[in-house]
Amino acid sequence: xxxxxxxxxxxxxxxxxxxxxxxxxxxxxxxxxxxxxxxxxxxxxxxxxxxxxxxxxxxxxxxxxxxxxxxxxxxxxxxxxxxxxxxxxxxxxxxxxxxxxxxxxxxxxxxxxxxxxxxxxxxxxxxxxxxxxxxxxxxxxxxxxxxxxxxxxxxxxxxxxxxxxxxxxxxxxxxxxxxxxxxxxxxxxxxxxxxxxxxxxxxxxxxxxxxxxxxxxxxxxxxxxxxxxxxxxxxxxxxxxxxxxxxxxxxxxxxxxxxxxxxxxxxxxxxxxxxxxxxxxxxxxxxxxxxxxxxxxxxxxxx
Length: 303
Known about the structure:
Layout: H1 3-30, H2 32-46, H3 54-62, H4 64-86, H5 91-97, H6 101-112, H7 119-141, H8 147-173, H9 179-200, H10 209-237, H11 239-242, H12 245-260, H13 267-284
Helix pairs in contact: 1-2, 1-4, 1-5, 1-10, 1-12, 2-4, 2-9, 2-10, 4-8, 4-9, 5-12, 5-13, 6-8, 7-13, 9-10
């Protein structure tokens, strides 16, 4: 990997990790629905120049229904669920939960789609899910307890279930469509779906400047710019290397939360994060025992 590609990979991890910081900053005043809607609408507006292509417009017209479904599962619903979780959970903890999507993709593919798991991937799945249980139980016992926290954790898991559906659906239905077209179209679809709810649930009191800054950061940086960087990186280094960003998101999420919001990093968070990432490394093939052939998969998601 060239130094420039490595820099883009780190920047992408930093941007997606920062999305949890921005959601934590903005969800309290905007509310989960309004923040998610403004994020999707802002990202769609920022992506308008990328639509200046007849090929992309033609692809969107021909595939408007699958793109809409991906916009719902990969953007609209996860944006709302993670924004809801941000009202109760530390940003670093939400970022760690985001790392379970590859585990859910592998588990659902094995259970319902007949995909095979070798011993290495199966052990990674068990290790990763054990880390999730450890993280949930440990977080409850380290000062983050309460019914609201339980629902927030469930929302994080629900967001990753949405990503799982989006990953399988994209892999089967969108192979012939340019990935950047899917990314742009899904943001416009998410914006259209969330617009009426954003208007209906707009906060009675206008959010303060820090919340607006967080919202703009989410829309422009963590969504629109991050999509462009990700798909350009895919084109340059391939999906196997680009997927390494999944390991950077929770790390940066914890760093930003500790640096800007003074969030504490508990033993449960550190241990759960390490166990989950080990499981993800084995499940996705990033870490393979000697003598085992790598079989890379692709997971398209945006926190």
